[in-house]
Write a structure and sequence with these properties.
The protein is α/β, with parallel strands linked by helices. It has 15 helices and 9 strands. Helix 2 packs across helix 3, helix 10 packs across helix 11 and helix 11 runs antiparallel to helix 14.
Length: about 300
C-alpha cells in the first residue's frame, strides 16, 4: 500500500484523500480467487487535478465517465484508479454487437442443468470490482440500458430468470469514450446522468516528460526533447485539421522507443510506430516531414539511449 500512497504524494494529491483511500482499502478485502485481477499498471498516471477529481468521486460511490481526445490517458487513468483502490478489474470492450447477455451473463448447460454463466458486470457487482467500460459510446442503447439500475441509487442487477443481486459496496464503474471514432455515437442522456464526467486534458510537455522518463530512464536528454516535440507537433497538426489523429499515437511512440532500446535504428522504429499509422498517401507525407525534423535518419540507438 505504501508504494501506492507514495505515488500519490509525489504529485501532492490532497492528504485527506490519500487517508480515505487507505481506509477504503482496509475496509474492503479482495476475495482470494479474484486477487489475480488486482494488477499494478504498466504506467502511472500523471495529473494531480484529474487524480483528485477521480478519487473524490469514487470515494463517494460515484461512477466515472472519462471523455476526451485520443492519447489523453483514459485507460491508463482507469487502470491506475483500480490499483490505487486495490480492486479487481473487469474489462468490457464495447462494440456494435454487444448485448445484455455479454454484460450480465448467459445460460449455459453444466452438470446436466441450465446455469448462468456470469458476465463481467455480474462478477464486478458480486466481488466489488472496478468495471472498466471501454469505448462505451460504441454500444447500442438497448445493450447499455441494462446497466441503469446498477449505476444509479438502486445499485442492483435484476437477472431475468434468476435472483436480483445487490452491488458490492466497493463496486464502481469507469466508462471511457473517444470522440469521432468510426462506429461511435452520442450517449443516451439517461446513461450520462449516472456518471460524473471528467474531460481529460491533452498531453503537454510536463506530462510527456513524466511518461517518457518513467518508461525509459536511460533516454538521453536531447533525444527526450525531440520525442516530446514530435508528439506535440503531431498533436498540434491534428488540432488544426492538417492530419487525422491516426498518427497522434502515444502507444505507437512508446512502442518505437522500445524497439530503439532493443537496437533498431530510430528512423525505422518511428516509421512503424508513427508514420505507417496513416494510410492516406498525402497525410503520410506530412507526418513523415514532421518526423524528419525531429528524428534524423542518421540517428542510431546510441543517440537515444545511454549505453
Amino acid at each position: 500500500m505504501e508504494h501506492t500512497l507514495d505515488f500519490l504524494r509525489e504529485q501532492n494529491v490532497e492528504e485527506r484523500l490519500i487517508r480515505d483511500v487507505e481506509l477504503f482499502r482496509k475496509s474492503y478485502a479482495v476475495e482470494t480467487e479474484e486477487e489475480k485481477r488486482v494488477t499494478e499498471p504498466d504506467m502511472f498516471f500523471y495529473g494531480k487535478e484529474v487524480l483528485e477529481m477521480a478519487i473524490a468521486a469514487l470515494l463517494e460511490g460515484e461512477n466515472l465517465l472519462l471523455t476526451g481526445a485520443k492519447a489523453t490517458g483514459k485507460n491508463v487513468l482507469a487502470e491506475n484508479l483500480a490499483w490505487i483502490f486495490h480492486r479487481p478489474v473487469y474489462n468490457v470492450s464495447f462494440h456494435v454487437n454487444t448485448n445484455s447477455g455479454d454484460l450480465i451473463g448467459t445460460d449455459t448447460f453444466l452438470d446436466n442443468e441450465v446455469q448462468l454463466r456470469k458476465g463481467s458486470i455480474y462478477r464486478c457487482a458480486q466481488y466489488g470490482g472496478f468495471g472498466i467500460l471501454d469505448e462505451i459510446n460504441m454500444a447500442k442503447n438497448d445493450a447499455v440500458s441494462v446497466l441503469h439500475a446498477s449505476l444509479d441509487y438502486r445499485r442492483c442487477i435484476d437477472v431475468p430468470g434468476y435472483d436480483k443481486i445487490d452491488m458490492h459496496p466497493a463496486a464502481r464503474f469507469i466508462g471511457t469514450m473517444n470522440y469521432g471514432y468510426a462506429g461511435t455515437k452520442e450517449l443516451n442522456e439517461a446513461l450520462v446522468s449516472r456518471f460524473l464526467v471528467i474531460d481529460m486534458p491533452q498531453q503537454d510537455e510536463e506530462t510527456l516528460q513524466f511518461i517518457f522518463r518513467s518508461k525509459f530512464p536511460g533516454m538521453k536528454e536531447g533525444a527526450l526533447k525531440q520525442w516530446i516535440g514530435l508528439f506535440l507537433d503531431l498533436q498540434l497538426k491534428a488540432q488544426n485539421g492538417e492530419i487525422t489523429t491516426k498518427a497522434v499515437d502515444l502507444r505507437g511512440i512508446l512502442g518505437a522507443q522500445k524497439a530503439i532500446r532493443r537496437g533498431l535504428k530510430p528512423a525505422l522504429a518511428v516509421k512503424m510506430g508513427v508514420v505507417n499509422k496513416s494510410f492516406d498517401v498525402f497525410e503520410k507525407e506530412i507526418v513523415q516531414d514532421v518526423v524528419m525534423t525531429r528524428i534524423p535518419k542518421t540517428w542510431t540507438a546510441a543517440d537515444v539511449f545511454e549505453d
